[in-house]
Amino acid sequence: MAQMHEEALETKYEGNVFTRLLAYVKPHVKTMVLALILVLTVTGINLVKPVLIGTAIDKYIEGYGKPYAVTAPEKAQVQLGEDLYLTADVPAGTDAELVRLIYYGEKYYLVWDLKEADLEPLAEWEKSGSPGFRVNGLSSTNPQSWEFELNGRRLQASPMDKDELAQLRAADRGGIIRIALLYAGLLIAGFFLQLSQTWLLQKTGQSIIFTIREEVFAHVHSLPLRFFDTNPVGRIVTRVTNDVESLNQMYTQVLVRLISNTVLIIGYAVVMISINPRLALISFLFLPVVFAFTLTFRILIRKIYRIVRTKISALNTFLSENISGMKLIQLFAREEKKAEDFGKRTTDLYNTQMKEMAIFGLFRPGLSFIANFAYALIIYRSGVSVLEGALTLGTLYIFTNYIRSFFEPIQELAEQFSTLQNAMASAEKIFTILDEKNTILEAEEPVRMPEFRGKIEFRHVWFAYENEDWVLKDVSFLIRPGERVAFVGATGAGKSSILNLIGRYYDIQKGEILIDDVNIKDLSLADLRRAIGQVQQDVFVFTGDIKSNIRLLSDEITDEEIRAAAHASNADHFIAKLPGGYDEPVTERGSTLSAGERQLLSFARTLAFDPKILVLDEATANIDTETEQLIQGALETLMRGRTSIMVAHRLSTIQHADEILVMHKGRIRERGSHQELLALNGIYKKLYELQAQ
Would you say the pTM of this structure is higher than 0.85? Predict the structure, then answer.
């Protein structure tokens, strides 16, 4: 039931999450644009690399089939023997004598005395298996010349040795080297461009995450106490840590990669259509299946991500609550029960995350199967095209490389969508808390009070925490500057609520609260709370040292003022005994200090800020007799010149107050000094006699 209640508190965000997330990118637009340019450049490099290899295959590696023209020595690119000069630059329509390499019987031959019209028939003849290729009256073991017939013409082919072949194809070797160097250059450029864009994106992403985390933390600090009454600490911690961190990958990778992958898909599609529209269209037939598969995945994974984030939040809330209450759990020997409860929660989270993994387990192999099936089909069709002469080997390489690469960004896009969905789920939680309204609002032009006198007045105040369940009912009283007033009464009478209302931690529903004749709703909250020093029954001590717990990060308070405040509150009695004195480390919640020492530290903290109004909420409830004597002596000094308001169950601590107000069921039933109230023979006297007994 507790877990169901925790999850019910999670509300669904109704706004446009993605648009709001993009707003955080605006201060970093230039950096993001630069990163995008780098990503697109890297994308262009990835598109060019297969083309380079395909060109190398067709033009140079498979280039033995290209013709050479016999030319003059000054125009030659290749010299064979003493008097044969060749060039690979053969213009269309030439009538020059041509030569061409053919491959037969695991050996290369140079065919002589060709014309341009012979080139296409020669290629067809070679592809058909070279029929009619025979030795011409010479030894077949070491022939010097081959003779064959092509379109009624007798052509001769001379075998090429390694040196001649290397000499003939020197230009091809140079072309391969140039392409290899260019490819290496692109790899190096791509590496540094990728490094630069990754660094820019990571830096920008961390900056955005830093901004969001600070915004959430600052907003949480600005919320009224009513918010913390209804929201567990564990959930708030989850928002500031886990949920904010889940946005990191979206800003550092997803946003720009979404664009780059989209550009890659479009680029691959355009190039494939330009190479072979028929094969490209066969590939595109699988896209509707991929998109439908991805859309289904997106819908399912978003739902499951929301549930996972909610359950993680509930688990953190459970942990925070139970670790804080570990002493109570051990006192009542509830370890096994709590372990069982924790086991149920973790099992529930485990089962939910297994559903998430099942969706991923189906999606990734499914998309991979579609991509590989399309790849296999394209390999078959393009292979047949090569055999039919409709496609070159280099073009086959380019096309198959693009096909394989074409589905990679699609799969990556789908996975980025899942990361995006995770970020969206976390963002919904974050924006829900950021949209939480502060009900304690300042006036547009608040009254500034550089100095307070300490006059406090309640005029017909009605207050309820929820609806009209009134805690205070038509409460009116006046406290003059410098007076000491105490509130007493049974638990739930409304005493502590009055103290919370003076500092405007809650707003009243009816009536007025005035300080120095100014309605507190017209005052600056900073001025108001700076004027009030409150010492509570449960003292919170922060991790740090003694000095920092008195100063509370206020640079205006000097070390001398800290020592003076500790001396006035008699806290220096125990501080002097600590090994580190004012620099003594303090653990979380001050577990190394006794309850009395923590209370004395709280007095020193309040005094260091020198408030004009002193509020003591059961300030001596947890103090032993010896420590109480130290505090009582300090209280006289503390209250002198300050308006002091005290709430106490132990009537012995407030007998010397100027006025005592007796609360009963949200109303003031009696008021007067200690002796006057005893003389009334009413509620106060009954309380006094009960304590005396």
Answer: no
